Each structure stands twice: as C-alpha cells, then as structure tokens.
Automatic annotation (TrEMBL), chains A, B:
Classification via SUPFAM superfamilies: GroES-like, NAD(P)-binding Rossmann-fold domains
Swiss-Prot/TrEMBL keywords: Metal-binding, Oxidoreductase, Zinc
InterPro entries named in the record: ADH-like_C, ADH-like_N, ADH_Zn_CS, GroES-like_sf, NAD(P)-bd_dom_sf
Chain ranges of the Alcohol dehydrogenase-like N-terminal domain: 25-136
Name listed for the protein in its UniProt record: Alcohol dehydrogenase catalytic domain-containing protein
Pfam families linked to this entry: ADH_N (PF08240), ADH_zinc_N (PF00107)
UniProt cross-references to Gene3D superfamilies, sorted A to Z: Medium-chain alcohol dehydrogenases, catalytic domain, NAD(P)-binding Rossmann-like Domain
Length: 352, 352
C-alpha cells in the first residue's frame, strides 16, 4: 500500500510499504476513506531530526473497517467509522470521566508512529472497540464530499475546537475570545456559537480565514496582536475581558495574549499544543484575578456520538475548514501548502 | 489608639497613633473585636525592606461599627460585622459574578496599608456597604470565645480554604488532596469535607496540625514530600491521583507536588499566594493530562452570608485553627510564634 513517511524536517515522502497487519486482538485494520494534514503535523515538519527509516504520519481519518482482531466485539468489518486522533479503551475510570486522551491503556497514534498512522491507504487502529465510532446510515461511496469533510473534522480539528469551548464552560450570553485563526481556532468559534456565546471575538489576521470565522459565528475580528490586540479586546468587552478565551495556537505570545484578555474569574482553555513548558501563572497573570487555565488534548471519543449526529442533522458544517483535496501522492505538497499558509487545511483522498 | 506597624523584616511594633477618620462617604470606622495574624503576614515579616515610617498591618477582623460615612446605607452604627480581607463595591459585574477580590472599585487593605489595617483598636473600612456583613443576633460582649473565633475565620482563613475547595468544583465521592497543613490547608480540609469529598489526603508533617486535619475530615495524612509524597498519594488513589488538589502553601515545591498528584482532568486550586510567577503548565505538567489550574485571592464576600449562617448553626467550627489568643501589645511576639511554628494561628483581642 501507499503510505506517507517523514524522514526529517521538510522531508515528507509517499512510498509503497507492506500492508499493516493485526498485531493485538483488540486491533482493527481501517481502509482510509479520507485523511488530512493537521496543524500539529507541521511541528515535526519543522523540527524532526533527519532519520534513516522515516516515521509514518497522520492521525485523522474516516474509513471502512477491513479486518478486526479476535477481541473486537462492537466494531464490524464493513463499518464506516470516524477514528479519533488518540486511542483509548473507553471503559476505565479516566475514560468514563471523559478524558480518553489520558487513558492508561490508550495513546496517541501517528505523528510520528507506525501503528495507526492515517496518511496512508490502510492503517491499524489499536483498541478498536474503545476508539472507533460508527457513522450510522452513511455509505461513504455515495455520501457527498461536504458530508465526508464534516465527518472527517470529528477525528480531530472540530472536536479539538469544541474541547476548548467545552473546557471553558461557555454559557449562553457570554463573551468569548478565540486566539488563532487556523482550522482549530475557526472550529472553536463554531463550537462557541453552538454553546450560545453572545460575543465571539476572533483574533487573527488572514482575511480568508477570518471571513470563515465570521460565517461560523465570530461577531468581531481583531487583527492586532500583543498589547495592541489586548487593548482592542478589552475595549470590546467593557474593559473586563472575555469570560472564556480559547487558545488555538500553542506559542507563548498566544498564551500572553490570552492572559491579557481573560476577565477576572474567566477561563483560558488551551488546545494549541504548548511549544513551551513554563509560563506565567502567578499573582500578576492568573492568580491575582482568579483566572483559570484549562485544556489539553481533546478527548474526541467523548464527544463523538453527539457530534456525528449534529453533522448528520446538518446542525453544524465544520468541514468548511478544508479548502483543498489532494491525492496521497500529493501529501508532500500539501504539507508545504499548509506551512506556507496557502491552504487552511488539506484533505487527502487516497482513492484519487 | 493602639495599632501595629511593621518597619521592616522582623520589626513589628505596637504604637499609639491617631484614631482613623472617615475619608470617603462610603467608609466606615470599625472597633476591632478580634483580629489575627495571617500566614501571608509572614511574607513581609520575612522580606519587607527597612523603612522610616512603618506600615499598618492586619487584614482580618470582626468588629462593631463605630461610625459610617454619608453614603453608607445598609451598615449601621452598632452593627457587629465580619470584615472580608478585601473590600469591594459588591454591585459591579465582576462582584456579581462572584469575584469580589477583583472588583475594579475594590482592593486589598492592610498588609501593608494604612486604611483598613486591622491589627489595631480601630480601623477604616472602605466600601463599607459592599464589604461588611452583619452577624445577625449575636452580641460580641456575651458571645462565646468559640463562636467569635469561628466568625473571625470567615474574614479570611476559613473562606480562603473554602474558596480552594469551591474553585476545585469538588463533588460528593471524590478524592481530594490538600497540600499544606497550615491554617488555610486545614480550613480547606474542612471545606472539602462539607462538600462531600470521600477521600481527603492531607499532605503535612506537623502532628498537632494533621491531628486537627483529621478532626476536620482528613482520611489520610501523607508526611512525605516531593517525589516520595507524590508516590504515596498515587498509591492511595489507585494510581490516578486526586480529582481536586487544594494548594495552600504558595511555594514552588507545593505547586510541583500538586501537578504530581492531580489526576487526568482534575483541578489544582491554589490559594497559597504564589511566591513565583512562572511555573510548568506545558504538555508534561498540566496540558498532557488535561489538568486544570484554578484559584486566587478568595472572594470572601461572596461566601460570607452562608458561612455566617453555617457557623451560627454550628455546622462548622473553623475557629479551632486558633491555638492562642493574645493582647495587641503581644502582636510582635505573635508574629514570631507563628514564624517559629510554635503557634498555628494567633488570635488578637484588643480589649485585653
């Protein structure tokens, strides 16, 4: 089969490799219907050390189950499923509490990794019963591109934005600031809108993206950054700042901006993977104003059934974050297009 | 009148000074019935630079209103009140949301400061209507020492522990770890018990204090610190850690310990004033396990009516944290006793 491997920063190759096989009785093999490139794939694309053998890439997919291990009971061959970007048993105390990305029997696949790397024709999914969720009543052969795109976002990007909003405990009527106009930030706007936020301020400066942000529900766009951006948001919020700040970038300036625009008692919810370990949390930043810090890798599995239903009911159409569809062979060019910000988010159709 | 002033680290003096006067129409003058020394008073006691004029100290009091400014409507001369350690208008959007310590028209008094410094016979309270809360049906002249002690804790220490528990969103049946066996930590144990925590692990090593912690509801005491202490708590919590961690110290080792013992998705709630500005919050500390960080200066005013009622109903007896009562003249010795950990918390009776 064809699969994508990364051999170092900027070095992405599509190669013919052996088909994956069931290794654990809880595994399933997925034929990938659609996969995509994630903003977080750009981190190794920038920084992966050069290596001889390469690592398999990709962690987002919808697909059809080709084979299941002997212990897989709920997921059947032929099921059309969404695969969360992390696997989990979905039965332990941590999963039941809704934090499947911290499941002691789970983990992150792909990016990098050799089990469950989805930028390929086929992939192994560990803990298939605890991870995969069937999409009821949809045949991927006849489904619209729009529907497939929206279902694919439930693997990571939309539900990561949703997780930001969920952990920020957004209540109807509140003011929300979203930091970052990437696909996750725009998803966070859409999720905040779903939760009834009254004011949604999107901090971003790429017009095509902020235009989609407005379509998703942003009431204001602030293109200024740093102190200037903070002043603008404070002005829009009566001097207080927002109840919820959804941070979808992961770099320190986005954190600093979030601290500046969160109101006393408000919540900063981060889903951009932090590219720092230490940050200000003392009296002058979080503590003095009782601001809270939340967020982490989205437990997509927790939100998946409801989100699939919302997509099927056309309540949300998060697939609009994709602005390009390519074949597997073009994945290296897709990385470059996202890195150059020519593309917002690139979908991959292995059948092309 | 007699008042306490600090002239530098370790230099606390009780002096005769002019009686305070009403300066703003929203001020009231309070005759202090009981005040006390706070763990946070020990920070300037350790680090205040030497100064010529000294600063007035103290921020916790119960007292009787002697005089009110022309704009004070609800609080009357003769009222027996609890004074929160911060003042607030209690009408603005931030106060109404329950974060009075961040009121844009409020502030912290005492410690250091010359308005509302309570280690004195008399003190000015700014924003009297928004800050003071009357204790119904109690005459401080005839009330028991036990009742006065418990009411005094509502000025700061008990409700600061309560705030830690409240912001940690403790639910019945949960596991809670309290870091620190000072008066705030013990108060946090009591508050966690009130909220229905099933397992309360107190991390502390002073037996007299941990004994009171057990009386307040601690089910386990862990005297080990650092990695050893973390391992002990993980062992007591099935390897997962606690749902809520109440950090009542403020130093970096307490933060690190809190990160180590919080379970995935759990909340670290800090009320120990951080003696650091930066701390680990990235993938390896908070983000990876979706742990949350909450807390700040307790909005005592928000919790005060209910807490006064709970004390009057004898539902809680937080005054047990006081293990000594002294006269104003003995305040310098009181600081030393707390600093030497001879005393857990020192009450001051200006009438002695």
């Amino acid at each position: 089969m064809k699969a994508t491997l990364m051999y170092g920063a900027g070095d992405v190759r599509v190669e013919n490799v052996a088909d994956p096989v069931i290794q654990e009785p809880t595994d399933a093999i997925l034929r990938v219907v659609r996969t995509c490139i994630c903003g977080s794939d750009l981190h190794p694309f920038h920084g992966l050390p050069e290596m001889e053998h390469g690592v398999h890439t990709g962690h987002e997919a919808i697909g059809v189950v080709e084979e299941v291990g002997s212990a897989v009971k709920d997921i059947k061959v032929g099921d059309f499923v969404v695969a969360p970007f992390a696997f989990s048993d979905n039965t332990c105390e941590i999963c039941q509490a809704g934090f499947q990305t911290a499941c002691p029997h789970g983990g992150f696949y792909g990016n990098p990794g050799d089990r469950g790397a989805f930028q390929a024709e086929l992939s192994v999914v560990p803990q298939a019963d605890g991870s995969l969720v069937k999409v009821p009543g949809v045949d991927p052969e006849t489904a619209s591109e729009e529907l497939l795109a929206s279902l694919l976002t439930l693997s990571d990007v939309y539900l990561t934005g949703y997780h930001a909003a969920y952990m920020a405990e957004i209540k109807p009527g509140q003011s929300v600031t979203v930091v970052g106009d990437g696909a996750v930030g725009l998803s966070a706007v859409l999720a905040a809108k779903q939760m009834g936020a009254e004011q949604i301020i999107l901090m971003g400066r790429h017009q095509a993206r902020t235009d989609l942000g407005r379509e998703f529900g942003a009431t204001h766009v602030v293109s200024e950054r740093g102190e200037e951006g903070i002043a603008k948001v404070l002005e829009l919020t009566g001097g207080f700042g927002s109840h919820a700040v959804l941070e979808a970038v992961g770099h320190m300036p986005a954190y600093t901006q979030s601290v500046g625009v969160v109101r006393p008692g408000g919540i900063i919810s981060r889903v951009g993977v932090p590219q720092y370990e230490e940050a200000p949390v003392g009296f002058m930043s979080l503590f003095g104003k009782n601001a809270r810090l939340a967020g982490g890798p989205a437990p997509v599995r927790q939100y998946l059934e409801q989100a699939i239903q919302d997509v099927l009911d056309r309540k949300i159409n998060p697939g609009k974050v994709f602005d390009r569809t390519i074949a597997l062979d073009d994945v290296p060019a897709g990385y470059k297009a996202m890195d150059d910000r020519e593309a917002l988010k690139v979908m991959v159709n292995p059948a092309l």
